[in-house]
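Late entry, evening session. Most of the bench is empty. Finally got around to the prediction I had been postponing all week. Sequence below, unchanged from the version circulated by S.P.
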Amino acid sequence: MTQQQSNADDLTVTRAELDYLKEKLEEVTDLERRMAISLTDGQSRTSDNGLGIRRPQPGPREPYGLHVEVLLDELQNELTTAVRHICEVRGLSYQGSAYPTALAKWLIRYRIAIAVMEDGAEIFKKLCRIVDRCARSMNTTEREYTIDEAMVQEANRQIVTVATVEKLAHKLDKVGKGLNARRMRTLCKQAGLTHVSEDPDTGTRFYRLGDVLDAHKRHAQRNRA
């Protein structure tokens, strides 16, 4: 095994996922600005949590405004937690401000540290999740499920069989719609889906969920063409 292969095996977050995380964190600057604007009604105050963001004066507010304010705080908290944890584990220091934008830029710069941390995959998921939630609140992300690079990378770590795929597919909502044992057999015959291992005693075949989702999507597109 080469040194490069050894280093790759040590990563808890793939390079593709790091690139995806960078794209997500780059959205924070615009999201922070838009969310803050949506909360400003001309009578502003400075928050007490270190954000320094303009917020409406206390008083009756629409549910939408309350929702955005909570999300903005959660974004700042999630970014802060990630930065502090990385600093503690990797012996780094953070000298920037408490603004989400500053925190996100620091995480972009030191994202490779996440990849070599034992809980790096969990940090990756939490950061992507909160950015997506904020984006949806600003209508910058469609409320639909698509198979992106990060999803495929994560799915490839999960193994399914013909008998278990339907249960997992149900949790994937639209992405997994129509996935069942019969569909799996069709994908194997017509879409080139192949198993990664087989139980010699029972004959049960095991598939990467990411491969199944990819074949499911490609076969559906081919049938619509």
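Two things to note before I forget:
Residues 97 and 103 are 7 Å apart (CA to CA).
Confidence is low (pLDDT under 50) at residues 1-9, 41-64, 141-147.
Will write this up properly tomorrow.
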